[in-house]
Protein 1
Amino acid sequence: MHTLWLPTEDPDALTRPRLLLAAKLRDLRERNGVTSETAGAAIGSLPLLKAMERGVTASDPHHVMALASLYDLTDHAARLQLLQLALSSRQEGWWQPYRPFIRSWFLPYLGAEQAAEIIRCYTVGAVPDLLQHPAYAAHVIRGANPGADAGELAKRLELRMRRQRVLHERNPPRLWAIIDETALRRRVGTPETTYRQLDHLLDLCELPHVTIQIIPLTVGHDLPRSPITLVRVLHDQDVRQVVFLQQFNAAYYPDDHKRHLYAMDLLAVIAEPPAHTPGLLREMISAL
């Protein structure tokens, strides 16, 4: 397995233009029989080439044009399209005012999340960020940032709530969340906070584009110990899904998305059907 660790100095986020440009650059190189090593040498860095072909970094227009020449791309319109994608890949997102509170390794995922058509996630320790009630999120954020003052905590909460707007847009992404039951039964803050979170999930189950499954405590399988998120930004066979794995205070974006897609499919099979989720949530509320 080849894993690309995100350079912490990368200041930009993953966007649609990056993924489209990545697919086109990868296709051009492969169709012309150019090795990654040769293409990397043309722009002075093999890791940079791989990052460009994955869509996890902004692309310098000069590098893109150098690759276009290496791949014998002479069509003016095609070269102009690559140039426009390269320029678009460097645009900033709405989250720039919150940049001091966003770790660099999270930026590619954040860009993909906000441009997504499909988001599939599995969580074991807490409710997924996009499904958190404000009171629940505030408690989780305080626990993850023990040294932060009230102003910073408020900004971090504001950022998380702003991210959730994506679920309420005119054309929202399809969100499919699989949550381990231990995360839902774990007391977070006061009983009222836990109640609000469970009731919030009940409301979210009513949204046609949101699917929530719960893996019951009785499941005997060995479950993944860390969150898994798969994001499909574009319905294009050449544009790969973004796999985001977070562990402790870091994250990485592995190449083998098919293996993680299989893992998510398996988790969906062993979890309770989505139709059972409201009943399970009501049982948990009654037990508070």
Note: The chain has twelve helices and seven strands.
Protein 2
Amino acid sequence: MIKVSNLRKNYEVYKPKYSGIRGYIFKEKTEAQAIKDISFEVGAGEIVGYIGTNGAGKSTTVKILTGILSSTSGDISVCNMDPFKMRKKLAREIGVVFGQRNQLFWDLTVKDTFEFNKSIYEIPEGEFKKQLNVLNECFDLDKIYNKHVRRLSLGQRMKANFALNYLHKPKIVFLDEPTIGLDLVIKNSVREFIKYDSQKNNTTVMFTSHDISDIDRICSRVILIDEGKVKYDGDKDSLATEFDKLYSIEIKFSKDISKLEIENLTSLKGVTGAQLSGENSILINFNNNITSHISIIDNALKTYGDMVIDIDIIRPQFEKAVYELFQSREGKNE
């Protein structure tokens, strides 16, 4: 459905040629690289999280894939079409949501806007009503259907705008911060509908968001970009273990453990610390590249034997791993 090979996007930037007042008059042209070299493919029915820090190139990529911007170089195919050269034809096959920028008509009702899009996309009456019923069940559109857009709250507008982009049953949907500003109820409805529609209609979704919980709950695959390049492309759960090497093991004992006994459990190389996590329980943190959970469990059983009554291995969490990765990236830029 989506094929991107060696994508690059440069912008012309004018910088002051001199310092002081002359710099406002005399400028020199330079090029800034928003996307340096990106390649990936997305198949039918995939829900892919496209993440990165501010300025990484996420929105620029989405704009190129939807035909809003042209690329500087590279090969791009969306629904077997060049998105920039065949933008009008491609528009019938895709849906696009850009955060709080809605496509609703301010002075029309939600109903009139939906009817307008029905005509634009030439949706048969039967299909239109059927899809509207599905969207109504998920987003409770009946309550706002006859209201003017200008009288809707931000959450109601975003909900209606999101539903509008699914009205024509697009093959691919590009979602750029679709849940920003939404309350928990509407946000959950959006998440559930994305998964439902992808499973039922084999819809491909590219999901960009700074809310990592959205990515964690919806996407099975993640493409992480940094400074215009793909840094990771693969399974969501594997990303957590690749960028966060710290695992934890919680061991529960049949009686209280002393500080000395806790220290004995941290004597292995690769163990980074241990602390009480509850009544008669200890949480041991370790680097999976240096030691393994088997070694730590074996050490605990040999040392304390029957005192150990329960063991729980805690793997790195996706959201925590991405957060720490972004934090380290921001730290380097300071």
Note: The mean pLDDT is 86.
Protein 3
Amino acid sequence: MTGRMMEAIEQILIQEAPDWVLVYGDTNSTLAGALASAKLHIPIAHVEAGLRSFNMRMPEEVNRILTDRVSSLLLCPTNEAVGNLKTEGVAKGVHLVGDVMYDVAKYVGEIAETQSNVLDELGLKPKEFVLATCHRAENTDDAARLTAIVGALAEIARDVPVVFPLHPRTRAKLDSYGQLALLDNLIVTAPVSYMAMVALEKNATVIVTDSGGVQKEAFFYRVPCVTTRDETEWIETVESGWNTLVGADCGAIVRAVKCTSPRERKDISPYGSGDSAKQVIELILGYDK
């Protein structure tokens, strides 16, 4: 898949001859764009540079490390990301700009609840439901992990509604493992729009997820998060008390969600002030090759 993307992106780059290529995050397309650009000697700006999970089994970790190595501008969302690059001996082109997701979260958060009626459609009341997502291969491709996570959601749903926008791959995996019955007592929906997702996030009492983006959005909107992974790139969310790592332990997930004595939570702003995109543009325009 990555190789095919490189071939197609290369043709576009040759045709368009851009001054820069801006790549974001850690997906396969991020790496494909970065490698195709590097081979054509087009400078690369990497947004979300420097993040590390220190788990090389994650394809995202491979993608982000390789992308950082070929980028001219490494646009870091946090001080931790800057420190990771320093540890790896990378200093040139490194800039702390904050998180562009926070820019978006501030903007969309103000309008989502007036432009989305998802709560009414699902019969939900604010702060009276749990929101859950699960899509990472490390969870969906492991029958024991996926069964434990969805089993925990089923247990939680005995006491409080659990909304579960279900990724098609997750449904297919549950079906192949013979565990679709675990969904019976959950409020299962198809994947929802971004606006609806933000409305659900802001109004949930707790969020259970394996998504990096949802972890951050939970933090942005000050909603407690329970993360079904063994590590996270967004350690600030954990250190501030808003995010709890539980892995795929059914009992730990249930306890974290039902905890009546929440950890002390800090009101910190490690992801900038909401002007990250502006800083990115200024750095690209002002770059001295």
Note: The chain has a mean pLDDT of 95.
Protein 4
Amino acid sequence: MESEKLGPAPNSLDAIVALIQQLRGEGGCPWDQKQTPQSLSVYLIEEMYELVDAIASGDARAVCEELGDVIFQVLFLVVLFTESGAFDMDHVVRHNIEKMVRRHPHVFGDKKVTSAADVRENWHAIKKEEQKANHCENASLLDSIPASLPALMRSYRVSERAARTGFDWNDLTEVMAKVEEEWAEFKTAASQIRDETSRHVAAVEFGDIIFTLSNVARFVGFHPETALTAAINKFEKRFRYMEQAFMRQGTELEAASRDDMDRAWDTAKENVSSPT
């Protein structure tokens, strides 16, 4: 494709918009032409997860590539809504700048803050005022938490918002005691599974454990999603190490005895360090 067909300079976001418009225009791509905001949302989520993986890998080149893919999806959505007459890029940028300025009165106004916690409190207070201004009289603090968030992330956000009202445990000891209580309730429910109804009861109790553990993470000061991701990555690395060890011996992992697996796992634990 000749570069002049793309219009603006390649380092401009306008170049991506021009590219998308060409893909959707006459003589463009049938796949791009049939996309809708609903269909693109799936791809946006996928690209976001790929970006998060790239960030976790520490590979700057991968992050650069995945950022480009995310930006492409975002701009594709802007083009679709521009075509429908709902809004255009100017509306998006202007609205975002106005919101960011409004929510940073300590930078663009006379508000005084002394810590990041102060900033966070101001942010949420301003959001509440915005809801009132928009006549959201029955608005809940939980309204802005996307229902489609992964459950562990959502549990953290829901409990964080609820705690902001004072509806919270007093300290970590109380939360840990609640974990023990929920664990005991789950053990009882699990021992009484006889049918789908009792299995559902056990599942609800299991969910209570996870929800409470997300609060433990909040009290300690880390995000449960980050902690779980690190644990999964650690397991994967050790499992792959174990697989490779059996392959070097000419043995399929599935054919190994449990004792052999346990010994190989212990070796993997010694040789594969935990993430720091």
Note: The domain at 151-222 is CATH 1.10.287.1080 (Helix Hairpins).
